[in-house]
Design a protein that fits this description.
Blueprint (H helix, E strand, L loop, with lengths): L19 E6 L4 E11 L2 E10 L9 E4 L5 E13 L2 E2 L8 H46 L5 H47 E2 L2 E12 L3 E11 L2 E12 L2 E12 L5 E9 L24 H5 L1 E2 L29 E3 L4 E3 L6 E11 L1 E6 L7 E8 L9 E7 L2 E8 L7 E9 L2 E14 L4 E14 L9 E8 L8 E5 L10 E2 L4 E8 L4 E12 L3 E2 L2
Parallel strand pairs: 1-12, 10-19, 13-29, 17-24
Antiparallel strand pairs: 1-2, 2-9, 3-8, 4-9, 5-8, 6-7, 10-11, 11-16, 12-14, 12-15, 17-18, 18-21, 19-20, 22-23, 23-28, 24-27, 25-28, 26-27
Helix pairs in contact: 1-2
């Protein structure tokens, strides 16, 4: 049996630097890669590299050497060293912070003594005032009248009480300010007088080299306390729109990332991969009652028009990637300090022609909104996230960008226009006609649109109005649009029942749109 000696690195030897060269930032953690060139000797040797973050996940540590070198990695592990708090040696006597704390404590004690004297003086004045009032009451009861002396004494006591009361309030205010300054100075003294506790990690690596020479080492691992979220900036300049894609990166891993290759991924490494359990779902049939056969129960409900794409996510629990892991890369090396703050990293930008529309849905909002549409020419998907909106006048607000595939249309709302006003009026009449006792509900909607223009405006603008019409899902209820009564008739009514008008408004112009439709239901229908 042959025993291979395992050398131990000297504790006083300087560790070999192992800088971070590449980072893949995941949704809630980071995959970190480090590289170093080692000057190896022939045989088995143990090396100490670092320092590295103490938050490294041990089971994810992986080390490998370039394939062109006959080097074998026998063992790789993380060794952590804890340095407790220890007092720092003083340079010469007390520091300026210590002297400031002593001065503040001395002033604090002096203010407390002064406040005690003022409170005692105010107590004596209160007793003098009480004795004087009792003397006045007794003298007035016995027929004595020394109005001049009593008034002078009362004025003197009240004056002294106001004076000493004001002094006490000033002392209390100074005491509160002094307490705040003293606590801040003590915190600064505590932080400067003691070394902070530090948990440092190093990589201990055992290698076997067939021959001496340089070798390139690559170490990778997962680290928590790092995440990223997408953010955008849309700049509308005349007829062109520039969309900039950025990544907001936070990391507090205990070390800075300087000049690293940054990759952004939506993969969820901690997500469980077990398939969901299948539960039994039984369907049963039952006969309808006689009352259910005689009637058709309907109801009006609000239905959101959906399209292809991921479901909406409330808040920001994670990155909305449409159910598929997406990967974005920063075009240049970036630096992200480990301070836990948000750092904006540019990813991509594109400029394209913009299609502007002034749109309004009066049933939902009386505001006319400027909507800008373009195609996604970034070359990658646009993940859902906040977008800063910038127009000719500068920053105009913040909106939300939905998940958009590459080449798909992008729609952004650049806020409402103050020079438009929309008023909506709705009327409803109900009637029963014919021998079949059909119920007919007639609804009339009037939309009044006004434009308030500045004196220098001469251009005509087109405003798109949208109003919805109910859509029936049962044959017992019919919805019919009275085009003859509409003024003007809608330009188009889509399958979801959205009526659309394109109205041209000159400066100071006004238009009124009338929409008339009816709901007709048989006698068996209830709930309409």
């Amino acid at each position: 049996m042959t025993t291979i000696p395992m050398p131990t690195p000297s504790p006083t030897a300087m560790p070999i630097a192992l800088p971070v060269t590449a980072v893949t930032c995941l949704e809630d953690r980071a995959h970190v890669e480090r590289t170093a060139v080692l000057d190896l000797a022939a045989g088995v040797q143990r090396l100490r590299l670092g320092p590295v973050s103490a938050l490294v996940v041990d089971r994810t540590l992986h080390a490998e050497v370039a394939a062109d070198r006959p080097v074998t990695v026998l063992d790789a592990r993380i060794v952590r060293t804890w340095t407790p708090r220890a007092p720092r040696p003083s340079a010469d006597g007390d520091s300026a912070l210590r002297r400031r704390v002593d001065a503040l404590e001395e002033e604090q004690a002096s203010l407390e003594r002064q406040a005690d004297r003022l409170r005692t003086r105010l107590g004596l004045l209160d007793r003098i005032a009480a004795d004087l009032l009792r003397e006045i009451g007794e003298g007035a009861g016995s027929g004595e009248s020394e109005r001049t002396r009593w008034s002078a004494e009362l004025d003197r006591v009240d004056g002294e009480r106001d004076t000493y009361g004001e002094r006490l309030r000033a002392v209390r205010a100074r005491r509160e300010a002094l307490d705040t300054e003293l606590s801040e100075t003590e915190r600064a003294l505590y932080g400067s007088a003691e070394e902070p506790a530090e948990l440092v990690g190093h990589v201990e690596l055992t290698l076997e080299a067939a021959a001496a020479g340089p070798a390139e080492l690559r170490v990778s691992h997962l680290t928590p306390c790092a995440l990223w979220r997408p953010a955008y900036r849309a700049v509308l300049d005349g007829g062109s729109l520039t969309v900039e894609t950025d990544a907001m990166v936070w990391q507090r891993t205990g070390e800075d990332w300087s000049g690293v290759r940054l990759t952004l991924s939506t993969a969820r490494s901690a997500l469980a991969t077990d398939p969901p359990r299948l539960a039994e779902d039984r369907l049963t049939l039952k006969d309808r009652t006689a009352a259910e056969r005689r009637t058709v129960d309907v109801e009006l409900r609000e239905e959101e028009i959906g399209d292809l794409g991921p479901a909406a996510v409330l808040g920001l629990p994670g990155v909305d990637d449409g159910g598929e892991a997406r990967v974005l890369r920063a075009p240049a090396p970036v630096s992200v300090p480990g301070d836990g703050r948000a750092h904006r990293v540019p990813v991509s930008a594109f400029t394209t022609a913009a299609r502007t529309e002034y749109a309004c849905s009066p049933e939902l909002s009386p505001l006319v909104t400027q909507v800008v549409r373009c195609d996604n020419l970034s070359g990658h998907v646009l993940l859902a996230g906040p977008v800063d909106l910038v127009r000719d006048s500068g920053f105009s607000g913040r909106g939300t960008l939905d998940f958009t595939a590459a080449g798909a249309p992008v729609e952004l709302a650049f806020g409402s226009r103050d020079d438009y006003r929309v008023v909506r009026e709705a009327e409803e009449s109900r009637d029963t006609v014919g021998l079949t006792q059909r119920t007919v509900v007639t609804r009339t909607v009037r939309l009044h649109l006004s434009r308030f223009s500045a004196p220098g405006e001469r251009d005509e603008r087109t405003v798109v109005l949208r109003e919805r019409i109910p859509v029936s899902e049962v044959s017992a209820v019919e919805v019919r649009l009275h085009k003859d009564a509409c003024s003007p008739a809608p330009d188009v009514v889509d399958a979801e029942g959205i009526a659309r008008w394109e109205l041209a408004l000159p400066p100071g112009g006004r238009r009124t749109v009338t929409l008339v439709y009816e709901l007709s239901a048989g006698a068996k229908v209830t709930g309409l």
